[in-house]
Each structure stands twice: as structure tokens, then as C-alpha cells.
Amino acid sequence: MTWEEESGANYDIKIARKVVHAALDQLLDYAARYDVEKIVFPFGNDYFNVDNKLNTTTHGTPQQEDTRWQKTFRLGRLLAVEMIDKCSVLAPVDVLIIPGNHDEERSFYLGDALECWYHKNRNVMVNNKAMKRKYYPFGVNLIGFTHGYHEKYDKLPAMMQSKSRSYGRNRNSGNGI
To answer: pTM for the whole thing?
Structure first.
């Protein structure tokens, strides 16, 4: 939450929701021109600014929060459902929950709520495995997702290469690892 007089622009949870919907609508309008077979939607990466009722990050850094923690979680979950639903009209959606350094616990809770919400929807798959990094197969490629606060940037290629070997052995274990 910011105040124009102090920061140069107003920003709150209502403005954020409008910005998200406008950006997603623009991306989906563009994507609709193509034969999209699947949408990979990484969620997390500090989707929530705080992780708890004390309005701190996972590691205790104080943050500005727009409103009560219950309200921001609920509105964040509803926004996630709205975005996934919009995407699923175009193509099946694979949601990957990627914990951030601001919202590690809340990201997991969001993933669990989304798994429950979509558990009977064959058009939406939610990967909420507890691992910090997720890998997603696409054709002959393996795409890696991470927030990057647990790994050193220069170590990521070797980590992914090591994981890709285990992925080859577990290829039939589900959508992504």
C-alpha cells in the first residue's frame, strides 16, 4: 500500500487487482491468435507481500500491508482463481506454486487451497509439491522455476542438470517435478 504524496503513486489491493486483470486480458488476447495447447502459470514468487499476521516476510522483515492478513489472503486466493479460470477458457492450465522469500508459507497455503478448488477440474493441474524449485517438461526441454533466494545464480545450471537426470527416471510420475 502506497500513498501518492509519499511515494509518487497510490497503490492498494483494489488497484493491484485492476492491473492484474488488465495485463492478463492483454496477454490472453494476444495468445488467442495461436493454437495454445497448455498454459504454464507459475504462482508465488512473493505473490503475497507478507507471510503472517505480524506483516513480516518469511524471515521477519516488516512490510506495509494493505489490510488485515485474512482479507489479503482471501482476496489473493480469489484473484488467483479468477486468473486461472480466465486462462482455462483458452487452454488447460498447469499451475506451479513457487515459494518466495516474502511468502513461503502463504504460497503453500494458496497452493493447497487451489488444489482443493480445482481437484475435480481436469483442465487445471496444481503442483504444490514442497520443493523450492519446480521443473516443467515442454517437448524436449526442461524449464526450471525458482524464486532464487535459496540458490546461487551460477549454481542453477548444474542443479537443473542433476535434477533432469532424475526427471528422466521419473517421467511418468505426473506433470512436472
So the answer is: 0.85
Q: Tell me what pLDDT residue 148 has.
A: 66
Task: Please compute Rg for the chain using Cα positions.
Answer: 17
Q: Are 62 and 70 in contact (CB under 8 A)?
A: no
Please tell me the distance from the alpha carbon of residue 47 to that of residue 44, in angstroms, as a whole number: 5
Q: Tell me: pLDDT of 172 over 50.
A: no
The pLDDT tens digits for 29-52 are 999 999 999 999 999 889 998 999
CA distance 170 to 57: 34
Closest CA to 39 of 98, 93, 95: 93
Which helix or strand (DSSP H or E) is residue 17 part of?
Answer: helix 13-31
Question: What span, in angstroms and rounded, lies between the C-alpha atoms of 133 and 96?
Answer: 10
Helices (H) and strands (E) in the chain, counts: 5, 5
**C-alpha–C-alpha distance, residues 144 and 136, integer Å:** 6
**In this structure, are residues 124 and 62 in contact, taking their beta carbons and an 8 Å threshold?**
no
At position 157, the amino acid (one-letter code) is P
What is the SS3 assignment for 101?
coil
> Distance between CA atoms of 43 and 84, rounded to whole angstroms?
10
- If one counts every other C-beta atom within 10 angstroms of the C-beta of residue 146, the result is 21
Determine the pLDDT at residue 174.
46
